[in-house]
Amino acid sequence: MLSKRLNRSTFAGVLAGAVLAAVATAAPLKTDAAHSSVSAVFKQMNVPVESNFKRFNAVLDYDAAHPDKASARVDIDIASFDLGSAQYNQEVTKKGWFNAAQFPKASFVSSSIKPAGAGKLNVTGKLTIKGKTQDVGFPMTVKTAAGKQVFEGQLPIKRLAFNIGEGEWKDTDMVADDVVIKFRVTAGQ
């Protein structure tokens, strides 16, 4: 009888340990900011320009064994957009462009992450910029490097769909409507 109790007790302990281990591994990954980036690529007067957002926060809950249970949220500090010139940086935060005073953050929240082959995922979710939200989808790659997960992808958008560039800046001859948001997020436990 004592042996059965001990076995049940041992089994309960092992089961509780397994549940705790599963919960512990389900914790979001910690972003390695030094090896992560978010940028926007667009054409100004038909010349490609790539500019970085210097501050953003990515929260990724990813387990390679269960990618379909993954989730992601990325919040971008709009005022951190760096065009390489203090004057341009100040201009794009104004109402006609990003209106950073009223809309200080842009965000992406995933609704689905599905496996799409070895090291590939298809991601869908909601992108919010300047108070406008749209459903978006894009492919993403994931690989392991130096013990961390590296997520990379590109999301094409139309800037005018988010009212980025109002008034005279709606003219796409100066700044094209097509923008590609590029990202690389390195994260680990």
UniProtKB/TrEMBL annotation:
Annotated InterPro entries: Lipid/polyisoprenoid-bd_YceI (IPR007372), TTHA0802/YceI-like_sf (IPR036761)
Signal peptide (residue range): 1-26
Domain Lipid/polyisoprenoid-binding YceI-like: 28-188
Sorted UniProt keywords: Signal
Domain of life: Bacteria
Name this polypeptide is given: YceI family protein
Originating organism: Massilia forsythiae
